[in-house]
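Checklist before submission:
- one chain only
- standard amino acids only
- sequence pasted in full

Submission:
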Amino acid sequence: MTITWRRLAVADFPLLRGWLEQPHVRRWWNHETSPEAVERDFGPAARGEEPSEDFLVFLDEEPVGLVQRVSFADYPDYAEELRTLVEVPDGAVTVDYLVGDQARAGQGIGPRMIAAVVEATWTDHPGAPCVVVPVAAGNRASWRALEKAGLHRVGEGELTPDNPAEGRDHVVYRADRPRSSHS
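Returned file contents:
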C-alpha cells in the first residue's frame, strides 16, 4: 500500500469538513465545521495565499487524512511560544495531521503519513534542519504515531492548546535531517 499526497483543494472541503466533525478528530483539532469556517481556515492555503502546506493524503487511491506542514519562520509567534520549551532552529518546520475516518484510525496509517511527509521535507525544504512537533500530552495516539514515525521526544511543558478543554500540557517531538552519506 502506497502513501501519496497532493495539495488540499477547495473541492476537498466537504470531505475535510466530514473528517473535522468526527469525534476522534474534533477533540484535538477543535475547528468550526460550517462550510464558511472550513473555507476561512483552509481556503487561503488551498489557494496559495498562505504559506501553510495542506496536503490531502491517500493510501493507494483512497483519501485517508490530512497533513499540514509549515515553516516556523512563517509563524514567528508560534515558534516563540515553542522556544519556551525546546530549541527551534532557524529553518525548522512542523507538521500536524489527522486520519479522517475513525474506522481507519489505529491501523498504522498515521505513522506512515507522518514518516512519508517528514522524509519528503528533506527534499522539499532543503534548508530545514529538523521537524519539531508539539502535541497535547493527553493525545497519546498522536504522540505514539510520531514515535512510530521515528521522531523522538525532546521536551514537555505548557503551550496554548488547540482545544482549551484539553489543558496546556504538551510533549514535543523532533526529527533531525539525516546526515548525508557524504559527510
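Reviewer check: The chain is about 30% helix and 30% strand.
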